[in-house]
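From the methods appendix. Each design record in this collection lists the tokenized structure first, followed by the designed amino acid sequence. Records were kept in a plain field format so they could be parsed without special tools. The example shown here is representative of the layout used throughout.

RECORD:
FOLD TOKENS (397 positions):
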């Protein structure tokens, strides 16, 4: 039996923490009980929270750390990633993605929804204590290539299964795929019950889909790349229409993660709730700031009632993979959101998206969520809930 006591314990059964409280766990980490400490018990200076769930990462891109210019917008970012992809030896990529996963684990990330475009990460994930679900992302703007792309991703899925990994196809975005491929890959992914989709990441994306204009449209035309259909609607509505075109009855069943959603409107959120049985939102604020200096519309997201999750995105669009840094960024931009609510996004909602809430996401008897200490969080007044500071870090207990 192990016992950890701290100034605050967030069980996430509610958004407010227990103060001067303890958690007792079995040797394997299974929670036995929580409670309030007796006066005089030594306390860790900070908050004990469940292990984090990184709801969106591209860990195989960790070799790109420090190589990208910031503030280029999506068109400029895509140019950079196309120029730099596959410019490192495989052994270097594998070493750096393992370092990234080890770093996330040390910070307290217990599970991750990870995007894979190849098999570089499979052996590392299979041997790692962190749970991962791999979303095998496909691209292909040429409608004639749809069948070949799906054949290749099915082969990649079989290879992942050989490593014992949970993995299935997933579409990348509205603008990198033919309409046929969006539908085919979505239907294939939802056979597993899970889908991840980059949606409404930037104004440039919306301009392209609504009007056939803007930097991303011009970039594709200049490079001779097929452009997506101009629908006059948002890219989110286009995606939902492609699910319908795949013959999926509505509300579409399965856990569907809409990643970024920097341009989400109340109308779009209502549409997603109506047409998807279990929608989730993944916000990656530091990546959004890195690429195009904007943040997701958190007030719209909160009002929608769609569960919000938190991801780090990749080291191509972030200086580090740090869940606490993501939460601090959100806290400072949206001070009305309590630390308890932010932790629910970063822990419990991510576990729910991955279907792991029976074990992960909250500190409850019988669960094994992993315990994490967030340091340097405090409240100005004793009656107030704590808040993160620029010095806040997370440490696995």
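DESIGN:
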């Amino acid at each position: 039996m192990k016992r950890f006591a701290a100034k605050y314990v967030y069980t996430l059964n509610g958004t407010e923490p227990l103060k001067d409280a303890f958690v007792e766990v079995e040797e394997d980490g299974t929670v036995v009980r929580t409670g309030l400490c007796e006066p005089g018990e030594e306390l860790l200076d900070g908050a004990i929270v469940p292990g984090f769930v990184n709801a969106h990462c591209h860990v195989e891109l960790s070799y790109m750390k420090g190589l990208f210019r910031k503030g280029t917008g999506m068109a400029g970012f895509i140019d950079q990633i196309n120029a730099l992809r596959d410019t490192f030896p495989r052994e270097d990529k594998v070493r750096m993605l393992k370092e990234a996963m080890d770093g996330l684990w040390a910070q307290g990330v217990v599970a991750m929804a990870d995007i894979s475009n190849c098999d570089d990460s499979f052996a590392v994930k299979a041997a790692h204590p962190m749970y991962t679900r791999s979303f095998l992302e496909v691209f292909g703007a040429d409608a004639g290539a749809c069948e070949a792309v799906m054949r290749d991703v099915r082969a990649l899925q079989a290879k992942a299964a050989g490593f014992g990994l949970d993995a299935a196809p997933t579409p990348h975005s509205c603008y990198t795929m033919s309409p046929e491929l969006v539908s085919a890959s979505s239907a294939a992914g939802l056979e597993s019950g899970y889908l991840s989709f980059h949606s409404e990441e930037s104004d440039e994306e919306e301009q392209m889909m609504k009007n056939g204009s803007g930097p991303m449209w011009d970039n594709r035309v200049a490079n001779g790349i097929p452009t997506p259909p101009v629908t006059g609607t948002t890219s989110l509505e286009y995606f939902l229409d492609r699910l319908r075109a795949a013959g999926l009855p509505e509300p579409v069943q399965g856990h569907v993660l809409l990643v970024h959603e920097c341009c989400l409107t109340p109308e779009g959120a209502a549409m997603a709730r109506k047409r998807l049985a279990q929608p989730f939102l993944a916000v990656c604020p530091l990546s959004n700031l890195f690429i195009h200096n904007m943040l997701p519309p958190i007030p719209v997201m909160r009002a929608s009632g769609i569960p919000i999750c938190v991801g780090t995105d990749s080291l191509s669009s972030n200086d580090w993979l740090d869940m606490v840094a993501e939460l601090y960024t959100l806290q400072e931009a949206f001070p009305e959101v309590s630390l308890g609510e932010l932790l629910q996004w970063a822990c419990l909602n991510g576990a729910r998206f991955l279907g792991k809430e029976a074990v992960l996401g909250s500190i409850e008897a019988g669960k094994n969520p992993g315990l994490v200490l967030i340091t340097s969080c405090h409240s100005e007044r004793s009656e107030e809930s704590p808040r993160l500071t620029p010095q806040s870090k997370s440490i696995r207990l």
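APPENDIX NOTE: Residues 2-48+378-396 form one domain.
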